[in-house]
Amino acid sequence: MSELSSAVMGSIENLMLVQREHLISRYSNAMEALGLPRTRLSSFHIDATGFSPEIAEELGNRQYLNAFGVNRKYILLAIEQQNLAVLDAHFTTTPWMMREFISLNEKALFNLTAKDAVFGELDNKTYRIDSLDDLLSMKTVTFSVHTPSGLVDGAARLKTLATDVRESSESWNDEAKLLEMVKLAKKLGDVESNDCLPEHVVFDKGNFYSRHLGGLYLFDVKDGIALIHEDPNFNCPATWKGKTLYPIDMRDKDALMQFLVNYDFIEIPNMDFLQKNKAALQTRLEGLLFAHLAEAKPNMDLSGFTFAANKHHIYEQFSFLPKAFHTLNSMLKHIDNGVSWEDDTMGATCLAYTTNAMPGRDNALVNHLLSRLTPADYVRCYHYNPDLFQERFGELPPSGKEYVLSVVVKKYETVDHDTGEIVVKGVSEESDTRTSSVTKGLIGLLRPW
Questions:
Q1: Are 296 and 259 in contact (CB under 8 A)?
Q2: Which position among 36, 199, 286, 399 has the lowest Cβ density within 10 Å, counted as fewest Cβ atoms?
Q3: Residue 343 has pLDDT above 90, yes or no
Q4: Has this prediction a pTM greater than 0.85?
Q5: Contact 89, 79 (CB under 8 A)
Q6: 144 CB-side CA count, 13 A
């Protein structure tokens, strides 16, 4: 388990603790049905898909529910899993799909999980991602739904038999059919009053990021498909099935931000935006100063870093601070003085630090992308790009790690998934901030929204 994960595992509230014997047994039954060995653990945590870090460690297989990063398996013990994190997602769409699947089928899944575990996979009919075509052809995902005791198949069979009996008078004379109905009804109850068959199982994949092929963002826009890639050797054809393909290199920040602006994926800063987001902008300004000092003064003790206590470094390092710092500082000065602000020359990196993703379904995906351009925005990276956050965290000096963890855990609530706004929480030294949604935010480092 990583250093950062270990640091927060004791405070997990956005993973579900499984310790009741009957739930452990149900989970093990589902594992067996998926071709996996039963767990010997007496307690463990699970995410929205049923993945458990502890069981992964027990099996020595981090991908035990996600072989080759496609057709992710899931194990559902309770509908409350819809609010949990999704760990090690190879696609940014996985968390959204799990929430939608559980939410839209809540009644059926509630009835099923009252009696058994539910398991299956997010099936996209792809078993390896070896080419761009493999990714581009993934348009929908279908949830397969099963239980170890056969409740779903039994419910489907009982509904079919009940329909036959209602619609065919001859069925009343079929003793075998009637006996089968009685047997199934004893096991399942009234399946028409207590629905056990999830109906919403097919979901549009939409725009997404995939770890495959070196890391790739796919945005299907009106003019074609934008492919934002991390591989310097990336190649793609000019078209795919009649659609123009637009490759954009992640290193070309100007082209990347221009794409986000052209297709209204981000908000353009104006005074209303700046005033509404003042607290978040101040946080990013603080992060930029911290990141600069961590690099410029590697031996400096940053564990107790605060913006106020380190303002003298701004005078000392003024000419060396990044342009984004000066841009944010100018924005905040204009806000405080009630003066309108505009800057048409601030550049891609500055824009990334000063903007937010538009609300909507692509909000999390765009924030995931923006986090790559804003290494000093620890909060955004923490919530939307946990893999990258852990990578950046590991590169910090020990005192820097302490500061970043304190910022993410102690100072902030969580992110509104509809608006993408960070809700900043005032923290007193006496208060214990590891409560409610703050603790839920702790698992942002594990949550790839």
A1: no
A2: 199
A3: no
A4: no
A5: no
A6: 14
Phi, psi for 256 (deg, rounded to 5): -65, -50
According to the 3-state scheme, what is the secondary structure of 248-313?
A: EECCCHHHHHHHHHHCCCECCCCHHHHHHCHHHHHHHHHHHHHHHHHHHCCCCCCCCCCCHHHHHH
Q: Nearest 10 degrees: CA dihedral of 111, 117, 122, 128?
A: -170
394: which 2 tokens? 């590991």
Phi, psi of 226, rounded to the nearest 5 degrees = -85, 135
In the DSSP assignment, the letter for residue 374 is -
- Residue 357 DSSP one-character state: B
Q: Provide the 3-class DSSP secondary structure of residue 62.
A: coil
Q: Which of 418, 419, 421, 413 has the alpha carbon at shortest distance from 437?
A: 413
Residue 299: how many other CB atoms lie within 10 Å: 6
Q: Strands, DSSP E only, in 202-257?
A: 202-204, 208-210, 216-221, 224-229, 239-240, 243-249
Whether residue 28 contacts residue 38, with contact meaning beta carbons closer than 8 Å, is answered with yes
Q: Which two tokens stand for residue 15?
A: 């993973």
**201-223 tens-digit pLDDT:** 999 999 999 999 999 999 999 88
State the Cα–Cα distance between residues 401 and 403, nearest whole angstrom. 5
Could you give the percent of the chain with pLDDT greater than 70?
A: 78
Cβ 92 vs Cβ 21: under 8 Å: no
pLDDT of residue 98: 94
Cα–chain-centroid distance for residue 196? 28
Residues pairing with 228 in the sheet = 217, 248
**Helices 93-104, 106-113: inter-axial angle, 10-degree rounding:** 80
Positive or negative, the CA dihedral 411, 414, 420, 423 is negative
pLDDT one-digit tens code per residue, 138-152: 989 999 999 998 887
Please identify which residue in the block is written with the tokens 């060396």: 320
CA-wise closest residue to 211 among 149, 290, 129, 325: 129
| Beta-carbon-side half-sphere exposure of residue 10 (alpha carbons within 13 Å) | 4
| Residue-range domain boundaries for the chain | 3-145+199-209, 151-188, 269-446
Partners of residue 227 on adjacent β-strands:
218, 247
CA distance 96 to 84: 11
Helix (H) or strand (E) segment spanning residue 423: strand 422-424
Tell whether the torsion through CA atoms of 417, 420, 421 and 422 is positive or negative: positive
Amino acid 431: pLDDT: 26
Extract the tokens encoding 190: 């009234």
Average pLDDT across the chain, whole number: 81
Quote the DSSP letter at residue 110: H
Among the ranges 105-109, 300-304, 312-316, which has the highest mean pLDDT value?
A: 105-109
